[in-house]
Amino acid sequence: MITLEHVTVSYGTGAKRIRAVSDVSFRVSAGEAFGLVGESGSGKSTVLRAVAGLIPHALGRIVLDGREMQVRRPKATRKMVQMVFQDPYGSLHPNQTVDQTLTMPVAIHKLGNTDRRVSAALQEVGLGREHRYRYPHQLSGGQRQRVAIARALILEPRILLLDEPTSALDVSVQAEILNLLARLRRDHGLTALMVSHDLAVIAHLCERIAVMSHGEVIEITTADALASGNVAHPYTRQLLRSNRGFDRSGAAIVDASS
Amino acid sequence: MSDTVTWRGWLLDPAPASRGQARLGRWYRSWRAFRRNGLAMTGLIVVLALVLMAVAAPLIADPTAATLQVLTSRLQPASSAHWFGTDELGRDIFARIVFGARTTLTIVALVSIIVVPAGLAIGLPAGYFGGWVDVVLMRITDIFLSFPRLVLALAFAAALGPGIENAVIAISLTTWPPYARLARAETLTRRHAEFIEAAELQGASHLRIIVTQIVPLCLPSVIIRLTLDMAGIILTAAGLGFLGLGAQPPAPEWGAMVSSGRQVLLDQWWVSTIPGIAIFVTSVGFNLLGDGLRDVADSRSA
Amino acid sequence: MTQSPIPLLSVRNLRVVYPGEEGDFVAVRKISFTLGRERLGIVGESGSGKSTTGRAIMGLVAAPGRVEADEMRLGEVDLLRLDERGFRRLRGKRVAMILQDPKYSLDPVMSVGYQIAETHRCHFGSSPLAARAATLEMLSAVYIRDPERVYELYPHQVSGGMGQRVMIAMMLIAGPDLLIADEPTSALDVTVQHQVLAIMDDLVRSRGMGLILISHNLHLVSAFCDRVLVMYAGHVVETCNASELAAARHPYTRGLLASLPELGRRRAELPQLQRDPAWAADAS
User: Fold this and answer.
1) Residue of B nearest to A106 (CA)
2) Residue A193, φ and ψ in degrees, nearest 5
3) Is there a smaller number of Cβ atoms within 10 Å at the N or the C end of chain A?
4) CA C125-C130-C136 angle, 5° bins
């Protein structure tokens, strides 16, 4: 469903050119959930945005559902891929009600039946009629993220991209949203590509996981392998160790030089 | 009483049932925040009084008295017949002030509806598209900005000729640049916000994004800037009037009135001072209103 | 952990209220705790009142917010009687606070070294040279390898982890007894988090300080601190030793622990926390 072949994304020009993503390749089958994990600066969010078509990729091919994606995407292909962003407040327009936010995609693609679609979308993410005409600042973080998910699904995409969907949320809300995402994925047979820095969250939702560092894919492994510690690359091992929690007795302090 | 309670309850309903209710509810909350600010309310009252005075001018003062020259009663101080006295041609100053409000308001309104769309139309694409669009549009803006406002207005007015319409054009041409800059700055701030990215992802065209997403964000600060600028616009109009451009005699215009009273400033001070006070009060009123609006906008975005 | 006879910090029935036009908002509802030369973790989600508690201790609750308590003492100093001047003398010297993101808590127009030296001069009235020397020493104490070079850097030139080390240096240079850290590592990557915590661990231990770590991360707090307070809606719902957190009794804590995804324990659905309104109710 999703194929990346030797994808490279760079920013800037000339001497200041930075390679955010270098020669990344992986495949995601239809209906699968694939995770991208790494620390900040690893390029994982950049890969996601390149797949979404929000930023151009300099080299390589991105193929979605058999069709190669160019830098400029026609409107019709937009329906295929949608994304849930990290910051539930930043991804909703502050001056638009939930209703307006959900109506816009329907209007853009002239799908018709607006009222029915919006109601159905809200119901699917567990929101009610009382939420429909509220503004984002009148909703809690979890509710806003539900709206963002409803917006992503209202166009009936085949691929759902998730950019750290729960890291800006409270711990207790995180479980609700993760459950919601798992359920929606099952119900709609979505292919999911998820980015997170939290190994436990990624392993919960995804079967196969790529570990990234400094723009490169270090290793592609599975959730089970991560759980059992059966990983190949030392960086992955280090990531697993950090994830285990703070160790008072043994932490060796490393001098920092910026 | 019970009606008010129901209305307010409807407006403040935490679960609005329609888009209209939600929007009105938002306005109502902002209004309540605004109402708490005493100075802002003062500004609002002054502006409303001005508008009322302009609209109901014939009911307040005698229209003929504003232009009727009675040379035998020149330069009279305030009396029961002439509340603010008479000017150097025997015209009733009170009537001229009241009708002059019409002129002032006309100029202000016309300038506003030209300047805001023009500023947005230039600043928004510059901020949104960046690149050479930005460079070209901003350099044009810079050229206009590099001239002192009054001097440029003067040049345009002199070139176009006297008259209110030309004064409006001249003032507009010199007032729009800061709004373009402001619109561009606001656009740049939001350009890469995630909700814009989400809109792009949905396949929204540039036009749709600019009009439905970015304009609503720029509009508050532009309008607030406009109210704060009103004082400047009024003073520029007065300046043009003072110099004989803009409204032509015998039409009453506050700036022209100040000018014509120059010769007799020491002995018959009211001829210049009273229109001067009118200009001052109006400017302060708009300023306070603008400050109040900005406070409400800040608290809403905080 | 031996406790000194007078606890370092003692708080009894602390209440913080923010009056508003639509009613008062009570951020902290009558909580009590004491702190010795140990590490206390305050855990809670947004709105639990944990950050407000930290700010109340520092006297940073801005008007119209009100701080009320039966007792709030730092050693022998009665915090309830202090005015702004009194607090200013206390801050930095007796109690210090580290915030979440050094990007926002460091002054962007001054070099980091200058800011730290300024703190030193402010508290000790030292000469610029002495302040600089003390700053360099402090930068080494937070394990920065080349302090002279880092001294000249501006906040935007240092990474997140380095920025937090700078913050720690700045806050500890005047030698406070109590350090309050409000989400000090939430903005950092996991590996860097552990480094920063290890440094805090080292300094707090070697200086015999007390530490209050405020965080939303249960596991982090239980690993790092000696004791844990769990807050919900302004109440303390659980107090226990960090090592005993897994055996927590309050349904909120248990619910929270159960709802966290765990590597190695794949569940089809995570148990969702069911909020009981009784938890938020005031006792009196």
Assistant:
1) B202
2) -125, 115
3) C
4) 120
pTM: predicted TM-score of the whole model, two decimal places: 0.84
**ipTM score over 0.90, yes or no:** no
Assess whether B214 and B243 both reside in one domain.
yes
Q: Tell me: do B154 and B241 sit in the same domain.
A: yes
Amino acid at C220: L
The rounded distance, in Å, linking the Cα atoms of C55 and B262 is 62
Number of domains in chain B: 2
Number of domains observed in the structure of chain A: 1
Q: Is C212 strand, coil or helix?
A: strand
Q: In whole angstroms, how far apart are CA B263 and each of A225, B17, B129, B254, B259? A: 95, 65, 55, 16, 9
N-to-C CA span, chain C: 34
> Per-residue pLDDT tens for B228-255?
888 788 888 878 877 778 777 777 888 8
What gap in Å lies between CA C269 and CA C284, rounded to an integer?
A: 38
Disruptive mutation site among C245, C257, C263, C270 for chain A (greatest number of A CBs within 10 Å): C263
In terms of residue numbers, what domain contains B93? 38-301
Cα–chain center distance at B183: 17
The C-alpha R_g of chain A, in whole angstroms, comes to: 19
* Minimal C-alpha gap between A27 and chain B (Å): 22
Please choose, from the candidates C224, C265, C228, C232, the residue with its C-alpha nearest in 3D space to the C-alpha of residue C245.
C228
Containing structural domain, residue A195: 32-40+74-206+215-243
CATH number for the domain spanning B78: value is 1.10.3720.10
Q: Please answer whether residues A103 and A114 qualify as being in contact, where contact means their C-beta atoms are separated by less than 8 angstroms.
A: yes
Give CA–CA dist B278/B270, Å, rounded: 12
C253-274 tens-digit pLDDT:
888 888 888 877 777 788 888 7
Whether the CB of A251 is below 8 Å from some CB of chain C: the reply is: yes
B49 and B74 fall within a common domain: yes
- Cα A198 from chain centroid (whole Å): 13
Q: Is A13 on the interface with C (CB under 8 A)?
A: no
